[in-house]
Design goal:
Length: 181
C-alpha cells in the first residue's frame, strides 16, 4: 500500500472524507459504490466496487464466444477496468485500466461505432494505441451504466459496421439483464 501522508478524522456520524486528489487519481465519483474490507492488522481498506466483476468468468466465456463467431477482438469492461478479453493477448489488456477517452464513451451511455471517415479511432487504454474501439455498447442495469462491451481492432484499416454494433449491443443487453437477476 502507498502512504499518502493525508490524515482525516471520523466525524460524529462515522464519516470520513476521501481527499479530492485520491478521488481524482482513483476515478472515484460521487455515488460510486465502495467495498470496505478489514485486515487482521486493523487496516480498513476501501475498494471501488465493480458489479460486473462478479460475472468475470461468465463475461470471459461470452467474450470468447463473440471472438470465435466474429473473428474480432471482444472486450468487456466495468466503468474503469477491463474485466474480460478474447482475441488479443490477455497480458496486454486483461485487468488494465481503460483510457480516459474510452471512459468518456462509456459515460455517454450511448452506442459508438468507429467509421474511418470520422477521424482517429479511440484507444482502449491510454498507454497502448495498438488496440482501438470499433464498436461499443454500454451495459445498463437499473438505469446505471456499469461497463461496456467493445468489439475492437488492432489494425486501423479494419472496418466495423452494423454486425459488430449488434454483437456488442446484444452482449451488453444480456449482461445488463444478468446483473438485474
Amino acid at each position: 500500500m502507498k502512504a499518502t501522508g493525508i490524515v482525516r478524522r471520523i466525524d460524529d456520524l462515522g464519516r470520513v472524507v476521501i481527499p479530492k486528489e485520491i478521488r481524482r487519481t482513483m476515478r472515484i465519483r460521487e455515488g460510486d459504490p465502495l467495498e470496505i474490507f478489514t485486515t487482521k492488522d486493523g487496516e480498513v481498506i476501501f475498494k471501488k466496487y465493480s458489479p460486473i466483476g462478479e460475472l468475470s468468468d461468465f463475461a470471459a466465456q461470452y467474450a470468447e464466444s463473440i471472438y470465435k463467431s466474429s473473428g474480432k477482438i471482444c472486450i468487456i469492461t466495468d466503468k474503469d477496468n477491463i474485466i474480460a478479453t478474447a482475441g488479443a493477448p490477455k497480458k496486454e489488456l486483461s485487468d488494465r485500466r481503460i483510457g480516459i477517452d474510452a471512459e468518456g464513451l462509456i459515460d455517454n451511455k450511448a452506442n459508438y461505432l468507429y467509421k474511418k471517415e470520422n477521424g482517429e479511432p479511440v484507444s482502449i487504454i491510454d498507454d497502448n494505441d495498438k488496440y482501438f474501439i470499433g464498436a461499443l455498447s454500454p451495459i445498463i442495469t437499473e438505469g446505471d451504466c456499469i461497463g461496456c462491451v467493445m468489439i475492437a481492432g488492432d489494425d486501423k484499416t479494419a472496418s466495423f459496421g452494423e454486425v459488430e454494433m449488434k454483437l456488442a449491443e446484444t452482449a451488453a443487453l444480456f449482461l445488463g439483464r444478468q446483473m438485474e437477476n
